[in-house]
Design goal:
heterotrimer; A: 331 residues; mainly alpha; ABC transporter involved in vitamin B12 uptake, BtuC; B: 265 residues
Chain lengths: 331, 265, 427
């Protein structure tokens, strides 16, 4: 068994673009779910409108990419408004169901042949992020340490995404440590108490939803930048669940929770993938008899599911959270 | 200034023909109710009389099917709860809503109104709200001191006892600087040693120039501190007067004692 | 007309994930770009169809769809290709809507998907029916779909009502029933029972699974004071585990039962459906009526409704809440399993993710009907089913599912408590 190979496969993914995109998506969820207690199960939808907004603005309207990015972010804010207005006055379950429904609707609609001329249908749109890669300041070559290396293109998009994660986290840290953050955390505990003190709860919930959604939109934009390509399959509702898993893994309502969680999540997913692949090849512990090589990719989702279950059951506070606070939040 | 002295004699809250139905059941049907300024008014009545529902309707936590009400000269019927509170009418809850995951001090600071740091655009800029925050903190610490909670300021509210949570909730409501405080069963579930302290605080609210309305079951408590008593039964106001008048009212005795007898058997 | 789009690899996400892993790996042999998809009509795979990719007049690759309908062509790299489906290799009665994708762009070095839309000639649109007849037929198939959704969702709604759990793994119970019945019915090493018997066994197995989940997972979690949100996340994890175990065991392609797979339609007036579909409707309707009557007439039913309305109060008034919850899990899982078989008998076939695909429709149904209200689940299921089928008369059928969800959002705007729900009392 090539243990260093497995480890470096895991690390490469944990530091790579996927982890950065999920960290960004999870930072957004952390504002909504971690701090404000809002059940956004449609984060995939926010990523989708961010990504498609940008891609369509470049592809169909011929906008300059930086403006197109703003269009993408604005689109995800608009989505937040559309979902928030009817549901934020209702019980939390409704927001959960409506957001996941909306994310699926969006995925089906952009996939539809009716709008193929705009969204490219199932074939998607590509080549819209040239501006971004034309401005790559990193010289050609491979960068990294040991067996973990990235080429200049991967490094550029990965670094920018991690920088955005840092930026978003700093902003969120400033917000949650302000009186604004105090109101939002209080809403998570008991809306009525906050209302009775003269705070417009609905407006704060909307603000949290929009901030988290906008960050999700940026995550979607970076996801499709990396691919230089956008298609509906990239925005399965599973993205939302994995971002939740990453958030809970790291610890909700903690600034570093989503970041640490996303790194750990992708380390686990790709490490498990690599481990299973190697184990099947070398028939390690008889694994080769159980799984055939084509099923390795499927099997890792079983592992992800198990990790989510075990975590929530045995360590609901994640790596960084305080158990006391989590138990109280559940009361 | 003459306006003000006029206002002082006027009732702070006037309720007209307020009705709230749940399906076919009429939970509240109040033709007329006035709450006098700078006084302690007790709202009594048997279980299911509609006291909490009336509280909910008046404070914007529930909607009325009919009627309107004026607070301090302003028609606030149908206003959302947060606007009612900002107007100066702040309530507490029967089941205490201490924000368990926040510290005692954060609970208090939440009550301060008009904080610019609570606005999203200003929140990231600490220098814009640092002074206000310091001021609010001083006020909060003084109140905590009054209520005997200053030693617990950095503990999570979850760690407080039931009675301490009631105290915290009352102190927190005062941070809003209300003109009218509506206390829904402030003594319920409080250990007897703390009841005296709570009563003392309620009286002090009045002495500081605020108006208090409170829901209470214990007649001894009602008799000892209220200036005025309103009795409800089956959604209606059946008596309204001084404590002595109300306890001797036959309708009150029928409604109240009737239930007490029913419960005893 | 059922349209199925091609998906890259086995599962879309799976394909994406694996392919993406390839782009970030440092191994010097960069994997070449590929394009592929799955050909299916009415949920059944279409094998043996040739697809070619060419640039200009040069053919750069070709593939033939396998037993699962899957095809994949490796192409030299990013660029524009012409993808063509050889219509002469299509089975008789199957047409391709656009056999040629003239300018298909390959963007990077990873697996991409391309969709060819296949329709079967006996689909309703080619039958020369009048508009009214088409609408009527859609309405009837909507009722059938709605009854199945209702059957599957009753358990979801009751579980929510009695335990407060929004169970994201409920779809996997639906799949479980369909798959167990398929094993009993068709697997060569299995007992090869008739479908009716296989269904009964599947329902019993699902009941056991439901009881096992309640006793082994949910009850201990409640005892650990795990809140509703925590349990919802556990159910998401459980759904992933079950769903991908199904995929490992049963692979990706849709399967059919031995019986009733390809019945010929019978004409009754303007209606044109196989007898099978009427039987499905009758079974679902009878089951729903039985459940409804039991909830209303029996002591157990009264207890379930009481717990559903006021959990704490019922516990205080001496109802055995734990027992009621167990019964709800068992019966909910059994109904879901039956619904799964009914769904699998129809044109969709039996597939590892069939329940997951139905999950959001079930959510739509129970929210529409009023959360926690079992009659609401039935009513909501019918509304969602009929609307999503009839809606395909005007909109492309790939939007069918979106229609159900849009209706859900619209209803919530007007009536947040659902069709049959009662407005909550505040304070």
């Amino acid at each position: 068994m090539d243990w260093t190979g497995i480890l470096s496969d895991g690390l490469r993914a944990g530091l790579g673009i996927n982890a950065a995109v999920y960290a960004l998506a999870a930072v957004g969820l952390n504002v909504q779910f971690g701090y404000a207690g809002l059940w956004n199960f449609g984060q995939a939808g926010f990523l989708l409108v961010g990504g498609y907004g940008t891609a369509i603005a470049v592809n169909s309207w011929g906008l300059w990419l930086p403006w197109a990015v703003l269009v993408g972010v604005a689109a995800s804010i608009l989505l937040g408004l559309l979902l928030g207005i009817p549901t934020l006055r209702l019980r939390g379950d409704y927001l959960a169901i409506v957001t996941i429904a909306a994310a699926e609707i969006l995925r089906i609609v952009v996939n539809s042949t009716k709008v193929q001329s705009v969204t490219g249908g199932p074939q998607g749109i590509g080549g819209f992020a040239n501006w971004f890669f034309d401005h790559n300041p990193i010289a050609r070559g491979r960068y990294g340490f040991g067996t973990i290396t990235y080429d200049q293109r991967q490094l550029w998009v990965t670094l920018v995404t991690w920088a955005l994660v840092a930026l978003a986290s700093v902003l969120i840290a400033m917000l949650v440590h302000s009186p604004w953050g105090r109101v939002v955390r209080a809403i998570r505990e008991d809306e009525d108490a906050v209302r009775s003190l003269g705070k417009n709860v609905y407006s704060y919930k909307m603000q949290a939803l929009l901030i988290g959604g906008a960050i999700g939109g940026i995550a979607g934009i970076m996801l499709v930048f990396d691919q230089q390509f956008i298609q509906p399959d990239l925005f399965e509702s599973a993205i939302t669940f994995y971002a939740f898993a990453a958030l809970i893994l790291g610890g909700t309502a903690r600034i570093f929770g989503p970041i640490l969680g996303a790194i750990a999540f992708w380390f686990l997913v790709e490490g498990a993938d690599s481990f299973l692949g190697h184990a099947v090849d070398h028939n390690f512990l008889g694994v080769g008899h159980l799984i055939d090589p084509t099923q390795v990719g499927t099997f890792r989702f079983v592992l992800v599911g198990l990790v989510i279950m075990l975590l929530v059951i045995f360590r609901p506070q994640g790596f960084l959270g305080s158990r006391q606070e989590v138990m109280l939040g559940e009361q | 200034m003459s306006n003000r002295s006029d206002a002082a004699s006027e009732p702070i809250l006037v309720v007209k023909s307020v009705e709230r139905r749940f399906g076919g059941l009429v939970a509240v049907s109040v033709d007329h109710l006035e709450v006098p300024r700078h006084k302690i008014t007790a709202l009594i009545g048997p279980n299911g009389a509609g006291k909490t529902t009336l509280f909910n309707v008046l404070t914007g936590f529930d909607h009325a099917d009919a009627g309107h009400w004026k607070f301090d000269g302003v028609d606030i019927s149908g206003w959302p709860a947060y606007r009612v509170a900002r107007q100066g009418m702040v309530r507490t809850f029967q089941l205490t809503k201490a924000l368990a995951g926040l510290t005692v001090l954060d609970n208090m600071l939440l009550g301060a109104s008009g904080q610019s740091g609570e606005r999203l655009v200003l929140a990231p800029f600490r220098f814009r709200w640092r002074a206000e925050e310091r001021e609010a903190r001083e006020r909060a610490l003084a109140l905590l001191d009054d209520f005997g909670l200053s030693a617990r300021q950095n503990d999570l509210a979850a760690t407080l006892s039931g009675g301490q949570r009631k105290l915290l909730e009352m102190a927190r409501a005062l941070m809003v600087e209300p003109k009218l405080v509506m206390l829904d069963e402030p003594m319920a579930g409080v250990n007897p040693a703390l009841v005296q302290s709570l009563l003392h605080h309620v009286q002090r609210l009045r002495d500081e120039g605020r108006t208090v309305v409170f829901v209470e079951h214990d007649m001894d408590v009602v008799m000892s501190i209220s200036d005025r008593v309103v009795c409800m039964a089956e959604g209606r106001v059946i008596a309204d007067g001084t404590p002595a008048e109300v306890v001797s009212n036959q309708a009150v005795i029928d409604a109240y004692l009737g239930q007490r007898h029913a419960r005893a058997t | 007309m059922i349209v199925v789009f091609g998906l890259a690899g086995i599962g879309a996400l799976l394909g994406g994930g694996r392919a993406h892993a390839a782009t970030t790996t440092t191994t010097p042999t960069t994997p070449s770009a590929s394009v592929g998809g799955t050909l299916a009509v009415d949920g059944h795979p279409v094998p043996g169809v040739r697809v070619t990719a060419s640039q200009g007049s040069t053919e750069v690759g070709r593939a033939v769809s396998d037993q699962r309908g899957a095809w994949r062509i490796r192409v030299p790299g990013p660029g524009t290709y012409k993808l063509a489906l050889d219509v002469s290799t299509l089975p008789s009665g199957v047409r391709a809507e656009r056999p040629e994708l003239a300018e298909y762009r390959v963007f990077g070095s990873f697996a991409q998907s391309a969709g060819f839309t296949l329709t079967s000639a006996q689909s309703k649109t080619s039958g020369g029916q009048s508009r009214l007849d088409q609408l009527l037929n859609l309405f009837v198939s909507g009722i059938r779909f709605g009854l199945i959704v209702g059957l599957c969702s009753v358990g979801l709604s009751l579980i929510y009502g009695t335990t407060g759990l929004v169970n994201f793994a409920h779809g996997e119970l639906v799949t479980f029933g369909a798959l167990i019945a398929w094993l009993m019915n068709t697997m060569s090493s299995g007992p090869r029972l008739p479908l009716v018997l296989a269904t009964i066994i599947a329902m019993i197995a699902a009941g056991v699974l439901g009881a096992g989940l309640e006793l082994g997972l949910w009850r201990p979690l409640v005892r650990r004071r795990s809140g509703a949100s925590g349990r919802m996340l556990v159910s998401i994890g459980l759904a992933l585990v079950l769903r991908y175990i199904y995929q490992v065991i049963f692979k990706g392609a849709p399967r059919s039962y031995r019986e009733y797979a390809a019945p010929s339609p019978v004409k009754i007036g303007p209606l044109q459906s196989p007898v099978r579909d009427y039987v499905i409707m009758a079974i679902c309707l009878v089951m729903l009526l039985v459940v409804g009557a039991m909830l209303r007439q029996t002591r157990l039913g009264t207890a379930i409704r009481a717990v559903s309305d006021e959990r704490d109060l019922s516990s205080a008034s001496g109802i055995n809440v734990a027992g009621v919850t167990l019964v709800v899990w068992i019966s909910g899982a059994m109904l879901a399993a039956l619904g799964g078989v009914m769904l699998g008998v129809g044109s969709q076939g039996v597939q590892w993710n069939m329940g997951f695909r139905l999950l959001l429709t079930m959510f739509a149904a129970i929210v529409l009907g009023g959360l926690g209200n079992p009659y609401g689940a039935m009513a909501g299921g019918l509304v969602v089913g009929v609307a999503s089928q009839v809606g395909t008369y005007w909109l492309p059928s790939d939007l069918q599912f979106a229609i159900a969800l849009v209706i859900l959002i619209l209803v919530l705007l007007v009536r947040p408590q659902g069709i049959l729900g009662v407005r909550e009392r505040i304070g």
